[in-house]
Amino acid sequence: MPIRLLRQALSDQQPARMWREQPLKQQYDVVIIGGGAHGLACAYYLAEEHGITEVAVLEKRYIGSGGSGRNTTIIRSNYLTPEGVRFYDESVKLYEQMAADLEYNVMFSQRGHLTLAHNDASLRVMRRRAQVNQLQGVDSRVIGPAEIHALCPWLDVSDHPRFPILGALYHPPGGIIRHDAVVWAYAHQADKRGVHLHQLTTATGILVENGRVTGVQTTRGPIRTGTVLNATAGWCSTVADMAGVSLPVTTYPLQACVTEALKPFLDVIVVSGSLHVYVSQSDRGELVMGAAVDPFASYSMDGSLSFVEGVAGHILELFPALHHVKILRQWAGLCDMTPDFSPIMGFTPVEGFLVDVGWGTYGFKASPISGKMMAELIATGRTPDLIYPFRLSRFGEHDLVGEKGAASVGH
Amino acid sequence: MLLLTCPNCGPRNAPEFRYGGEYNPRPADPDAVDEATWTTYLYLRENRLGVQKEWWYHRAGCGLWFLAERHTKTNEVVRTYRWQPAVPGQES
Fold it and tell me: Is the complex ipTM more than 0.90?
């Protein structure tokens, strides 16, 4: 690698593009709406594992401009339900191999993940989660204040705060990653295998005849196809509406912010459900902080002062030493929240119209496995066992997967 | 959104209110509807991108549950008003 880098530096040649601009063909086998990590991962696995390369990914703006570029990059598998733990653990395993599989440095840092408990009730939930995790073979355990202090000396574990820290769920494989690199790596590898990536291309309609998908209307012309995958996160209801499908989804903004860069001092991810806050230190030294979703449903990605006030107050309860640190910028992404805080993957009442939506605040960490599973579903026409619990029809069958207790912050 | 107008109290700070979800009337006779209608009422949402009719609750004020019409992209509130019980023969 270093020699390649040196040669690049000394030559006049532009580096090869990560992916190409392609003409929009009139027909594709599969059209994926949404050029984020989910859609691109699905395109990659369709080409890589199933030999389906007549695939178009339609992206309204630029690759990774939605939730994939707006999340706080936390990856973990210490969920509450066995279905959730199994699923997200497969995702962590794929993330662990990603740099080698996709030949791209995604800077995955498995630094450990602490979910703090500030009262007896949450400590009880942590114990239950630890048990569920361990039964699924996931490294996860409850630790006390002394061990928390050893892992993270800046955290105030005394009995002084209003909500003292009683313990934490410690999940050593949890980590952070370079989220844009994940998107670029999938885009690059999908492009290399013949997938067409169409940026600045909006799907404006989905053609359905006799209950079956026959094509997609776009701002660059019509496409004939028998299979359409809706992988559009916050906008999924509007896309599903084009096919006449109603979803159990409400779109909420989720805000995050970063501080100015500090010397490295925080090498674990700290989450507090009771205080609605999570924080990690990026490789650049900035503290990346997030909170719960906004208090009302909206498609707006404006920042609010009440968010910054809230997150700053809660961070100072955990880390009093940060009182002088300045916030650099804030942003928001759109979350497609479902009633049971679990995603929706698979078939819909319209034949050929598939969904990979309902990812709420936990979509990025599931990109590789959801892409792999959706690709298998498209190629074989069968729902893989791993994602069967997350089918759309579970709502009509009253067979929900209640994951609320394990969302990283309360909702 | 900084202000919301309570039909009782007038314009107040938005954090005084709690969002109550999109307007989704309950089937008039729950025993008479089929499973699909009930599933739709319980779980499926329009999640409209545009002006949406929705519930708000003035929790830090008079405690009134009222309706608002708000654009979900711009957060501009078109109007707020009291809920009226349905008149038989008319749509609520």
Answer: yes
